[in-house]
């Protein structure tokens, strides 16, 4: 049986079970009520996409810088990297958002909750990226660096031609996973009143009292963003494998 | 090549690996370094190949001393070739791309000239059919032979080989040793670290026994392997050749 068919069958069975459960419970669906708010959903979706893109780029850059710090022979630089990573990975994103917006941003006079949201999200994800990059670099055998030097490549050439191509292949699955997490974590920005997708669904729910009709499209919307990302990652992994 | 090593000292952290090592050879084509693990052979080879700078001491090939600063050392490395025990080849490139990389990015050849240069060596060593494959698709012996070719095609003054067969099974070991033997017949100069004593006897012009961070014996293969009067050296060969 082809794989796509198996996937569709499993999803169909799952959906039928849910539908069956609801038919038993006499739930009155109010899709028309929620449909009136489609503009709100779309706007929220757009904001989520924009926030996620910005945070993705920023967190990758932060991750690279932090990975360099972690690998540094300078004791102070390594300490900066290590403290950053441990603090961020050891506290919940929710806590970082609340502290970041209501305490730190207020203190420095940064009022734009969108900017603060993107910054906190980027710093959060960047810590995980740093560990992913560091692990990828460490997984490359030392002989590879020796071989590059033995041939007479400059450090920059070694990085460009030998080390980075291998590191990218090694970290690709983990980075894709981190991107997916980031898109989902952006839903937490709703707690500092950023008008993204999740907050939109919450507001529609409070207007219509139609909870399932508000939150099911929300889940579908996130899947619309995350599923293509996962599929793209699998395609890239297959293309860049070491076996032809 | 004439090798002149004086008073070589190398340390890693607090451990002294080379302890005032000295070695003067005749004008040899093939120098083989043997000795116990941890004795300093690979450390010595890395210094000779220009990969590490010793803490103290001097190295000169044919009267030319090895530089100590990295840019000059990099230039030196471009004139020699080095092959390690494993993981030589870059796994994200095909065998052919591995061969072309140093020619194009270090020695400035065009794609066409580089491919022209590697064609004959690939044919001669029966590797032409495997050139399009990635290292993951090659056997251990093929990988090592491609690695040797990659070191060869830049037309180096000499080759450095650090236990090139230690990670291979007997059949592949034979395949790689055969290639090294052929290279010697073709006139290539090399310094080889190996545990393959039979091969060392056949191919070496001189053998140096490296142990406890010094050269304990050096001379012709027969002198060092079969007839040494240094107790440490005698017991080493007695044990492994029995």
Descriptive overview:
The complex is a heterodimer of chains A (244) and B (242). By secondary structure, chain A is an all-alpha fold. Chain A is 82% helix and 0% strand. Chain A contains ten helices and no strands. Chain B has nine helices and ten strands. Chain B has helices at 41-48, 70-77, 95-105, 111-124, 140-152, 170-185, 197-203, 221-226, 231-241, and strands at 3-12, 15-24, 30-34, 56-61, 64-65, 81-83, 159-162, 190-193, 206-211, 214-219.
In short:
Chain A is mainly α and 244 residues long. Chain A is built from ten helices and no strands.
Query: How many individual helices of chain B?
Result: 9
Using only CA atoms, what is the Rg of chain A? 22 Å
> What sort of overall outline of chain A do the alpha carbons produce when their principal axes are compared?
flat
Sequence of secondary-structure elements of chain A: HHHHHHHHHH
| Number of E strands of chain B | 10
Shape of chain B: globular
Please state roughly what percent of the residues of chain A sit in beta strands, choosing from under 5%, 5-15%, 15-25%, 25-35%, 35-45% or over 45%: under 5%
Q: What number is the mean pLDDT of chain B? A: 93
Largest sheet of chain B: 6 strands, mixed
Low-confidence stretches of chain A: none
Report the average pLDDT across residues of chain A.
Answer: 91
- Rg of chain B is 18 Å
Q: Largest interface, by Cβ-Cβ below 8 angstroms: which chains and how many residues each?
A: A-B, 22 and 30 residues
Q: Tell me the series of helices and strands of chain B, N- to C-terminal.
A: EEEHEEHEHHHEHEHEEHH
What's the tally of helices of chain A? Answer: 10
How far apart the termini of chain A lie comes to 25 Å
Please tag this protein with its features:
heterodimer; A: 244 residues; mainly alpha; 10 helices; flat; B: 242 residues; alpha/beta; 6-stranded mixed β-sheet; 4-stranded antiparallel β-sheet; 9 helices
Describe the secondary-structure layout.
The complex is a heterodimer of chains A (244) and B (242).
Chain A: H1 3-25, H2 31-35, H3 38-70, H4 75-90, H5 93-108, H6 113-138, H7 142-151, H8 155-185, H9 197-208, H10 211-239
Helix pairs in contact in A: 3-4, 3-6, 3-9, 4-6, 5-6, 6-8, 7-8, 8-10, 9-10
Chain B: E1 3-12, E2 15-24, E3 30-34, H1 41-48, E4 56-61, E5 64-65, H2 70-77, E6 81-83, H3 95-105, H4 111-124, H5 140-152, E7 159-162, H6 170-185, E8 190-193, H7 197-203, E9 206-211, E10 214-219, H8 221-226, H9 231-241
Helix pairs in contact in B: 3-4, 3-5, 5-6
């Amino acid at each position: 049986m082809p794989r796509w068919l198996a996937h569709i069958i499993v999803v169909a069975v799952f959906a039928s079970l849910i539908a069956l459960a609801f038919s038993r419970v006499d739930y009155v669906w109010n899709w028309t009520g929620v449909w009136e708010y489609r503009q709100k959903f779309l706007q929220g979706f757009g904001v989520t996409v924009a926030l996620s893109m910005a945070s993705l780029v920023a967190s990758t850059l932060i991750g690279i810088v932090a990975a360099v710090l972690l690998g540094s022979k300078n004791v102070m630089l390594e300490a900066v990297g290590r403290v950053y990573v441990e603090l961020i990975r050891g506290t919940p994103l929710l806590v970082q958002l609340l502290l970041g917006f209501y305490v730190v941003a207020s203190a420095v006079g940064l009022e734009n909750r969108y900017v603060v949201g993107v910054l906190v999200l980027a710093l959060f994800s960047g810590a995980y990226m740093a560990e992913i990059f560091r692990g990828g670099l460490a997984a490359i055998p030392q002989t590879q660096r020796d071989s590059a030097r033995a041939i007479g490549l400059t450090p920059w050439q070694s990085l460009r031609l030998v080390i980075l191509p291998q590191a990218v292949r090694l970290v690709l699955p983990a980075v894709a996973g981190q991107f997916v997490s980031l898109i989902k974590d952006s839903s937490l920005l709703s707690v500092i009143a950023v008008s993204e997708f999740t907050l939109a669904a919450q507001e529609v729910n409070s207007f219509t009292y139609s909870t399932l009709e508000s939150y099911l499209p929300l889940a579908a919307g996130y899947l619309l963003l995350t599923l293509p990302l996962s599929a793209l990652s699998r395609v890239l992994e297959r293309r860049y494998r070491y076996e032809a | 090549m004439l090798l002149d090593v004086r008073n070589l000292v190398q340390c890693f952290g607090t451990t002294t690996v080379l302890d005032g090592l000295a070695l003067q050879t005749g004008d040899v084509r093939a120098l083989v370094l043997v000795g116990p693990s941890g004795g300093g052979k690979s450390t010595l080879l890395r210094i000779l190949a220009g990969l590490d700078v010793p803490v103290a001491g001097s190295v000169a090939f044919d009267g030319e001393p090895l530089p100590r600063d990295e840019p000059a050392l990099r230039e030196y490395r471009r004139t020699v070739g080095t092959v390690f025990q494993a993981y030589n080849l870059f796994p994200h490139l095909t065998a052919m791309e591995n061969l072309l990389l140093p020619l194009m990015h270090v020695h400035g050849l065009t794609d066409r000239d580089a491919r022209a240069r590697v064609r004959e060596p690939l044919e001669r060593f029966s590797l032409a059919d495997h050139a399009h494959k990635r290292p993951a698709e090659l056997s251990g012996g093929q990988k090592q032979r491609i690695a040797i070719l990659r070191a060869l095609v830049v037309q180096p003054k000499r080759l450095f080989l650090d236990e090139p067969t230690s990670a291979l099974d007997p059949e592949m070991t034979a395949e790689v040793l055969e290639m090294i033997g052929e290279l010697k017949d073709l006139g290539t100069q090399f310094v080889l670290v190996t545990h393959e004593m039979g091969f060392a006897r056949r191919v070496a012009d001189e053998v140096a026994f490296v142990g406890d961070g010094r050269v304990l014996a050096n001379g012709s293969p027969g002198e060092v392997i079969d007839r040494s009067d240094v107790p440490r050296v005698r017991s080493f060969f007695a044990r492994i050749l029995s």
